[in-house]
Design a protein that fits this description.
heterodimer, A: 296 residues, mainly alpha, ABC transporter involved in vitamin B12 uptake, BtuC, two-stranded antiparallel ribbon, 11 helices, 4 strands, 75% helix, globular, B: 307 residues, 14 helices, 2 strands
Chain lengths: 296, 307
């Protein structure tokens, strides 16, 4: 335990926490959809990635500043989220939950292949901001672009909270997630709320995808799988249906991932993250903030 | 001819993979770990024949037993959670297995060459079939003998009390528990049986392709495993068989002429089937042949069955 090792540890912890906010956003997306529909949308990561590609495609057509590229990415992902809703969840009967699950797997394969086909499987450079800026705190330095990623993700979380707890739309969403039938009896159009939730979570996913690509610097189809698995891990650690859980889970996964990468190298990193998840599942199946009573 | 025999081999191993997921799906659990068991089976069987010179039949049995035990060990903690959480837990297990083989190195010297799993490079030269002079046709026959045995066994289990018990758990856990069924035992048993079948499939797969590497056993393979039975319908084992023939035979091989676009078609097709026939191609429970040919209306016979 020498001094420099300690500094390295703190450094990777800080980087992990900053980057973990993108995982938190993906986790929130999964949780929102699960909250209102009680179903898992496995196509979510792929849809987020496809949205990010929409932003990139817009930048190819007309040169845009990075902020606008991010914005178009988020919007594109929202639209794709609506398509996923129509394709996988709107018309499959709720009495067969496996049908919707497999349909979302089909959508995942479809979107993934479409993206690979249209982009020829090549990684493309993705714009970023504050690439060369950095803040130094003693021996620790913080990358400017990671700080920007952190800022945008926190901002989207704040907007989401405002939307959920300060608007009538949010009230309707929370009502549907608590008791769909009672909400319907009160005159809340559950179908529209479901569709809107898919759009909102799509926008969050697009933001997360854009921020991931901005932090890495390139956009490639491989990101979709890691978005999906990391998002699911975050949701399970935080507890399905809990937004604060997803945020804390995201930060934890980001930090754990970076620390394991420092300790055991990049090839073994994911084994330990999965192991962490497995331990969580067996010892605390409901997650950190999961509410297992009166559900299912 | 060689091509079609090779295709038969592929169909055989994929049927085993699909059946392994079918057993678990009967209890209402979606397991994404089947690709992991398949990988363990592939590596264990390949190590037995290539490194220790065992005959393929005992090698496959060893692989099957070890993956069955592994599935049981994984099943106990994993089945504490259910539904969506189980999807995630088993997904994590599958990825863990894949990452394990990505880092796994164990090579021994045989005939002056190093043989064995070599990390990211994979496991090369699993040459049991060519070394012993098996033709493509022999291999296909061998694989299909095993597939038919497994299919028959599962079909038989399906039509006994054990099958009814599995389905009871799948349809309504609370009701099943209230008639005195032990949920944990049944789920773990289904998991172990599924794991054992996946192990057989993996062991055969390793020998047909002679080179295995971690990348093959990813999430995509796991989704294929659960896609076969759900797409074909959980009514009987023939749904899985039909789905495998349709996907691997028709979509992957038959439509080669449209090139890259067929993988797009695959996802779109799953979407279409799930929207039009949410219970799968053959439906939830295939009506027995007797009712199809008898003069009585199926409603009457169904009513008699439920009495």
């Amino acid at each position: 335990m020498d001094y420099y090792f300690f500094i390295d540890l703190i450094q990777s912890l800080v980087d992990g926490l900053l980057f973990g906010t993108t995982y938190a956003l993906i986790g929130i997306g999964f949780t929102l959809i699960f909250g209102v529909m009680r179903k898992l949308n496995l196509a979510y990561g792929a849809a987020a990635l496809a949205g990010t590609y929409v932003g990139l495609a817009a930048a190819f057509v007309t040169p845009l500043p990075p902020i606008l590229v991010f914005f178009v990415s988020a919007l594109g992902s929202g639209v794709i989220g609506y398509i996923v809703y129509l394709g996988c969840f709107r018309y499959t009967p709720s009495s067969h939950p496996m049908a919707a699950l497999l349909a979302s797997v089909g959508m995942l394969l479809f979107i993934d292949e479409l993206v690979i086909h249209l982009s020829h499987g090549m990684p493309y450079p993705y714009p970023s901001v504050l690439r060369n800026a950095e803040i130094t705190l003693g021996e620790i330095w913080i990358r400017g672009d990671l700080l920007f990623v952190f800022g945008i993700c926190v901002l989207s979380m704040v907007i989401l909270y405002w939307l959920l707890y300060r608007t009538s739309l949010g009230l309707a969403t929370r009502a549907v997630s608590q008791q769909p039938r009672a909400a319907q009896l009160c005159g809340i159009p559950t179908g529209q709320v479901n569709a809107l939730t898919f759009v909102i979570s799509g926008v969050l996913g697009g933001t997360a995808g854009a921020m991931t690509a901005a932090a890495v610097g390139v956009l490639s189809p491989i990101i979709a799988m890691s978005l999906t698995t990391k998002g699911l891990i975050v949701v399970v650690i935080g507890g399905l249906g809990s937004i604060p859980g997803a945020i804390i889970g995201g930060l934890m996964v980001g930090a754990a991932e970076n620390v394991f990468q420092l300790l055991r190298g990049v090839t073994e990193r994911d084994i330990y993250v999965m192991l962490l998840l497995f331990i969580f599942l067996t010892l605390r199946p409901g997650g950190l903030f999961g509410n297992t009573e009166g559900r299912d | 001819m060689e091509f079609y025999l090779g295709l038969l081999q592929i169909l055989g191993v994929h049927t085993l993979l699909g059946l392994s997921a079918y057993v678990v799906l009967l209890t209402g659990q979606v397991s994404m770990a089947q690709a992991g068991f398949y990988a363990v089976g592939a590596y264990v069987a390949a190590m037995c024949t290539a490194m220790f010179g065992i005959h393929i039949l005992p090698a496959v049995i060893i692989a099957s037993v070890s993956t069955g035990i592994l599935a049981m060990i994984v099943g106990f903690p994993a089945l504490r959670v259910r539904g969506l959480m189980l999807v995630v837990a088993t997904l994590a297990f599958g990825e863990m297995v894949r990452m394990f083989f990505f880092n796994f190195r164990w090579q021994i010297e045989r005939d002056g060459k190093l043989i064995g799993p070599n990390g990211a490079e994979g496991f090369r030269a699993i040459r049991f079939f060519p070394e012993n002079g098996w033709e493509t046709g022999d291999v296909a026959l061998f694989i299909w003998c095993i597939v038919v045995i497994v299919l028959g066994l599962l079909w038989w289990v399906d039509n006994t009390r054990a099958g009814a018990v599995l389905r009871a758990v799948g349809h309504d856990e609370v009701a099943a528990q209230s008639v005195g069924l032990n949920l944990t035992t049944i789920k773990v048993a289904a998991m172990a049986l599924g794991g054992a079948i996946a192990g057989i499939g993996g062991g055969l797969y390793a020998h047909t392709v002679t080179h295995i590497e971690h990348g093959v056993f990813g999430i995509l393979l796991a989704t294929f495993a659960i896609a076969y039975p759900i797409l074909g319908g959980l009514g009987s084992v023939f749904g899985t068989l039909l789905a495998v023939i349709f996907i691997q035979g028709f979509l992957v091989e038959g439509l080669r002429f449209i090139g890259d676009w067929r993988s797009l078609l695959f996802g779109a097709l799953i979407l279409l089937v799930m929207n039009l026939r949410p219970t799968g191609l053959l439906g939830e429970r295939m009506s027995p042949l007797k009712t199809l040919f008898s003069r009585k209306s199926p409603v009457v016979t169904n009513a008699k069955e439920t009495q």
